[in-house]
Amino acid sequence: MNKKVAFYTLGCKLNYSETSTLGRLFSNAGFDTVDFTDTPDVYVINTCSVTENADKKCKKVVKEALKVSPNAYVTIVGCYAQLKPIEIAEIEGVDMVLGAAEKFQIIDYITDLTKKPKAQIYNQPVSQANEFVPAYSFGDRTRTFLKVQDGCDYSCSFCTIPLARGASRSDTIASVIEQARQIAASGVKEIVLTGVNLGDFGIIDGKREFKFFDLVKALDEVEGIDRIRISSIEPNLLTDEIIEFVAGSKRFVPHFHIPLQSGSNKILSLMRRRYKRELYVDRVANIKQLMPDCCIGVDVIVGFPGETREDFVDTYNFLNDLDISYLHVFTYSERENTLAAEMNGTVPGSTRADRSKMLHILSDKKRRAFYETQLGRTGEVLFEGDIKEGYMHGFTRNYVKVKTKFDPVLVNELKKVGLTKISTDGDVEITESEEILVH
């Protein structure tokens, strides 16, 4: 019988795409991929290290894995593995730690599944992680996360990602197009473009060969994909030409996720962000002028060193006044080897928690207000195969989350539906009547 491998992914969409690629490497090597609880011979845990909580989650996953399969060989890869390999190696039950330059050679390193008293570490300096390795998620959703860029040349004062993933580097446009065609041939209807700094796409072997806009135009011509969604993109890299192209695109959907991090120019400067809030206002205004129904998501960090009550209120009011659709709220977490960790003006943990709660409430308000503008309209929904309490869900082109009673015939289908009401859980609900569901 073939050996069995199970995967667990922590963190971003990019990690999910890379886990799928690792899965294909194992499959090609004769392993069977199984569920986490199906007593695998090997566990591969792909880690994140954006916050301290991500590190704690890794330790918890290792513990749970060994409860299920005590003799399993446990390998840790990902950002946490690059940043703190020795710390990971000391976690009881871990057998191997692979850094950023080694993770896609994982099959070469897993030659003996015998558990040993001490974990093996293979971890070169992050400068050695200079090769772009294509990746896309597959088999678990009706949409695929397609990695087109990796690494980051920015130096935000709170971020460890450049230390964990290395310099900015990209796939070629020809390679991305070929992967998009493969994805289309598999029956997947939506591609989500991912990267560490997606808008910086185009650096190959240390030189800029393309712009992200070049990729956007090329992908719009790929037949067989109904939707292409841009994941997080920096406001200074989301150019007017990209916005204008998406507004008239055949495949790119009206949905942007644009990190802000703070609505205070003082805090943006301390964060070493490459824009001021005035540029952010211009981007949102341009999007809404061209695409009034566009969904706009925002990343924001609370509790950054030096953030006074006045700074936070400034951010809150700025976000409240913006025509945006939802927030992803992050509570600032001190990370070793970052400038922010050495800054004065530490914000107490309880204050950080209070500010986070306020912005989560604001996010709920913004999302509901956006959804209410869509009620009474018809939206095209791509339904997914999940079941929760008898319901399934999907998303419209502009990222309205829709729920309806589970029907297996609807899985991975695009259907025009009438958006009728907001349910108690905050999703938009539709009925099954012919007037509502237009086949």
Concise structural overview:
By secondary structure, the protein is α/β, with parallel strands linked by helices. It is built from 13 helices and 24 strands. The chain is globular and about 60 Å long.
Instruction: Count the domains.
Output: 4
**CATH architecture classification name of the largest domain:** 2-Layer Sandwich
Strand order in the largest sheet: 22-23-20-19-18-21-24
Strand content: 15-25%
Q: Whole-number radius of gyration?
A: 22 Å
Question: What is the general shape?
Answer: globular
Overall average pLDDT: 93
Taking the alpha carbons of the first and last residues, their distance comes to 45 Å
Overall SS class = alpha/beta
Could you give the count of β-strands? 24
Q: Roughly how much helix do the residues carry, as a percent range?
A: 25-40%
| CATH fold annotation of the largest domain | Transcription Regulator spoIIAA
